[in-house]
Design a protein that fits this description.
The chain is an alpha+beta fold. It has 3 helices and 5 strands. A hairpin with a 2-residue loop joins strand 2 and strand 3. Belongs to the amiloride-sensitive sodium channel (TC 1.A.6) family.
């Protein structure tokens, strides 16, 4: 035996004329340019936790990878910026509403996992929000 309960469903649809455009960030997953690494340098892994799953042949291989990661983490921001991919290398053009993105809407930051990054339309109290 089933109990039957009345179902009340209310749906309101609101059409807005414009929406705030969100911030969009783009990063290069490769922390450093390939030519910056020595030929025999181990690859930098995206996370230290990945080390336990890598196919290193012995402990010295894993130690070498850990050491490379540690050196990268200990670099100052300017050095990481120089050794990393510049946003202009991986973002060729930025258009918003068919026009080139204003430079004052672009900001740069670094992420230890993803390398150098660029953000379009970062929240800024001094500028009016972009709308679509």
């Amino acid at each position: 035996m089933y109990f039957l309960y009345p179902i009340v469903f209310t749906l309101e649809v609101e059409q807005v004329k414009s929406l705030e455009f969100p911030a969009v960030s783009i990063c290069n997953f490769n922390r450093m340019k390939k030519f910056v690494l020595s030929r025999d340098a181990p690859l930098l892994l995206s996370e230290r936790s990945s080390l336990m799953y890598c196919n290193a042949t012995n402990d010295s291989d894993q130690d070498e990878i850990k050491e490379s990661l540690q050196q990268f983490y200990e670099m100052d921001a300017e050095r990481r910026w120089r050794k990393g991919h510049k946003p202009s290398d991986f973002m060729q053009k930025c258009l918003f509403r068919g026009r080139i993105c204003p430079r004052n809407r672009l900001s740069y930051f670094q992420n230890l996992r993803y390398g150098n990054c660029i953000t379009f339309n970062k929240l800024n109290k001094e500028m009016e929000a972009l709308v679509i």
